[in-house]
Amino acid sequence: MISVNDFKTGLTVEVDGDIFTVLDFQHVKPGKGAAFVRSKLKNLRNGNTVEKTFRAGETIGRAQIDNRGVSYLYASGDEHTFMDNETYDQFTLTSDQLEWELNFLKENMNVNIISYKGEILGINLPNSVELKVIETEPGIKGNTATGATKNAKVETGLNVQVPLFINEGDVLIIDTREGKYSSRA
């Protein structure tokens, strides 16, 4: 059990039978009435974000999440196969479970699997990945007055806004948290 006064960003908790990670929290002490903690929580089972308010000092269950290193092997239709790096066990996840992550996954990529009491909740991507540009229009001279950008499609199918000097074949570093261009590799 953990007190809501000890909330930290990234902490995983169990509330009403669901597993949540704390995205944001705020301790509020109004002039009149009891103090409370306002929080924004992300459900790890379905990806929904909810806002919950707890009384100050209230205790809730702490969820012990397991992170294991796995390799992404291949996609077969709607299923994506991963292999545990230690035990070499293979398992599959559906496209619905990996909606956002599919924008960054390449074959043979190492990621971490998130599980709770044997139930696989999803995967943790690295903060940035290197992806090759497969399609973009050429930059036009004279359009660079104030940080102009253009659209580029990378090898996973993700469309990213990039500076005009980026060409097809360039390898980019993409931030996986926001899906934005960081720099050239």
From TrEMBL:
Superkingdom, natural source: Bacteria
One Gene Ontology term of the molecular function aspect: translation elongation factor activity
Keywords: Cytoplasm, Elongation factor, Protein biosynthesis
Principal localisation: cytoplasm
Keyword Cytoplasm carried by entry: yes
Domain Translation elongation factor P/YeiP central: 67-121
Signal peptide: none
Gene3D superfamilies with a match to the protein in the record: 2.30.30.30, Nucleic acid-binding proteins
CDD domains, sorted: S1_EF-P_repeat_1, S1_EF-P_repeat_2
Ranges of residues in domain Elongation factor P C-terminal: 129-184
Localization, UniProt: Cytoplasm
Pathway assigned in UniProt: Protein biosynthesis; polypeptide chain elongation
SUPFAM superfamilies: Nucleic acid-binding proteins (SSF50249), Translation proteins SH3-like domain (SSF50104)
HAMAP family (alphabetical): EF_P
Family: Belongs to the elongation factor P family.
Main function: Involved in peptide bond synthesis. Stimulates efficient translation and peptide-bond synthesis on native or reconstituted 70S ribosomes in vitro. Probably functions indirectly by altering the affinity of the ribosome for aminoacyl-tRNA, thus increasing their reactivity as acceptors for peptidyl transferase.
PANTHER family assigned to the protein according to its UniProt record, in alphabetical order: ELONGATION FACTOR P, ELONGATION FACTOR P (EF-P) FAMILY PROTEIN
Name of the featured protein: Elongation factor P
